[in-house]
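Hello,

Our lab assistant flagged a job as stuck in the queue for most of the afternoon. It eventually completed. Since we weren't sure the result was trustworthy after the delay, we are filing this so someone can double-check. Below is the sequence as submitted and the structure that was eventually returned. Let us know if re-running is recommended.
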Amino acid sequence: MLAILCPGQGSQKPGFLTPWLEVEGVTERLTALGTAADLDLIHYGTEADEETIKDTAIAQPLIVAAGIVAGELLTERVREERVLWAGHSVGEITAAALSGVLTPEDAMRFIKVRASGMAKAAAAEPTGMSAVIGGSEDEVRAAIDAAGLTAANANGGGQIVAAGAIADLEAFAENPPAKTRVIPLKVAGAFHTSYMRPAVAELQELAHDLAPDEPVTTLLSNKDGKPVTSGAAAVQSLVDQVTRPVRWDLCMQTMLDAGVDQLVELTPAGTLIGLAKRGMKGVPGTALNTPEQLEDAFGK
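-- returned structure --
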């Protein structure tokens, strides 16, 4: 079974869309998706610098649109019944679109509201996230709680991401749990925590106006790593995810239990394949960053 992975915020790189524009129809597709999100995706994906595309309101729609385009090209080359979808954080919206729960256009409208709301919430006070590498999981979680922080992402392979106020993160890094490294992440706020609560109401209102379909292939949830039970449940989970921790470790375990024997991470790729090297040892993976890799790995 093939698991197609959709990356989250922080995976974007300057110019990463450039090679994809050489594929027939991609420019038009990105233009249409950009219209739905009211964003010039081609400019931001080819010309904008690193600081510009770090902005949450830009990064999230850019990542989702790129994944949709690459995912559509990829699924032309694989048997649908062999595919499992999983997305990390904002990548879960990409996966929802590609698995049939949302139309690509609705996914872009959803991510526009999500990104704008989360950007505003992040700007309200200085917050951030730090990866905690190594140590005992129980001890790391206890130390995060004691520091007044939240374990916002459980990424597997000995990595948990702590999130909260910058001052609390700095104090935590000065006195880290035993046998750990604490690495500040280049994100704009404490995502997947109560700090993002102001972003929920408008997103919930939009969700009520959507008409989701059932997933046509297996779609895993960041909530518990299990397949979603319905399109409506998937959309509500996407709303709840804004303030709820991401359990990518459980997603990887479900993939292993399901017999996944190949991984492909959609552009901008690399982060999730890196996590899989530790959490899904022995399962081969491809970080799909250029269209040439489509032909090499899956044929014309």
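-- support follow-up --
The delay was a queue issue, not a problem with the job. The result is valid. The chain has two domains: 2-123+193-298, 124-184. Residues 67 and 227 are 20 Å apart (CA to CA).
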